[in-house]
Amino acid sequence: MEKIPSFDEVSAALANDTTNSAADPAEIHGLLCGMICSGPKMNGKVLIEPTDKASRSILLRLYEITSSKLHHFDFEFELLLPDDSYELRVQAEGLSRWCQGFLLGLHAAGIVVEHAKSNDTRDALHRIAELAALDHEVIEIKEDDDVALFEVTEYIRLAVLMIYSEFAVTQNGSSDIMPASQMIH
Fold first, then answer.
1. Which CATH superfamily is domain 7-183 in?
2. CA-CA distance, 9 to 5, in Å (whole number)?
3. Per residue in 10-38, pLDDT tens?
4. Which of 36, 118, 121, 178 is the most exposed place for a label (fewest CB within 10 A)?
5. What is this structure's pTM?
6. Cα(153)–Cα(149) distance, rounded to whole angstroms?
7. Domain spans of the chain, in order of start
8. Which residues, at least 6 apart from 154, have a Cβ–Cβ distance to it below 8 Å?
């Protein structure tokens, strides 16, 4: 299956787009994932309206690949985060921003944490909220923190699949994923 565009590709596309030049790629991907996980509740209106064709193309590709991986419960689903070439502090900040965007996407669809059916989903959403509130300025980086960051990222990745299965999948086992052409205009 196709891989999502890289953090640097999305960052470059957003930097060239006058309407989204300050947007963070991780936060944008989290927002898209939150909206996708909310299922058919979204009406297709999104805060992302790139004016640049390259930006639009990258964001549509990011949306299509992400929604496909979630829809198929693909364990290759990944979060768009700064990679290992970035300092660990920047990677942790990226994860926090991804979580902020994810919660914003769910909130925009009217998803309320307390309405989750399972305790596991509620717990996962609470943990995502804790990461979203992470204060990057006071993080003390230690030797083994790269392993801890990997484990937390993996937990979030799997939690998103669980959240998707609870909120986006309808009772008959299918999901109503909106096509990218309707999602981003």
1. YgfB uncharacterised protein family PF03695 (1.20.120.740)
2. 6
3. 998 888 766 655 679 999 999 999 999 98
4. 118
5. 0.86
6. 6
7. 7-183
8. none
